[in-house]
Amino acid sequence: MNIHTVVNRHTLAALLSAGLLWTSAASAGAARDASPLAGTWTLVAAEVQHPDGSHAPDYGTKPKGLLLIDGQGHYSLQIFKAERPAFRAADKAKGTPDEYKAAVMGSSTHYGTLRIEADRGVLVFHIEGASFPNWEGQEQRRQYQLKDGVLSYRVKARPNGDVPISVWRKID
After folding, report:
1. Which segment of the chain is annotated as a signal peptide (predicted)?
2. Whole-structure pTM value
3. Is the domain defined by 33-170 classed in CATH 3.90.1150.30?
């Protein structure tokens, strides 16, 4: 073994160690950023604000949902329209086009990691998986407010100008 091989191995080991330290530091930072939100949240409201300023239900009049956030900033979010019709068949692979549409349009689920940019009043969702596949791999920034155990945030406007608003209450 010559001196260049030894030096290259030590250099590679040093670079790998530095990378691991950087990754650990980044993960620790994300955990600190999300810690005020860690816990279990239940959905209070899911509505849209129309361009004219009026509001309407987005997932029916009694939406259901759960948001779980751990201390490291990992989250899982589910929102469902309570009035979704059951499929006639007992097999979800045998639904009708209308049943499939109602199931998809009556739910929103995604998971990933999140961090808080408190100085900007922004939640940053890094979406790893979603019921709407176009969101996978995206970073979504949402204006938020947190007061007295209630979290509310505004999602980016849809193409028609509607702005979804979600309101959650902490239950643990």
Report:
1. 1-28
2. 0.79
3. no
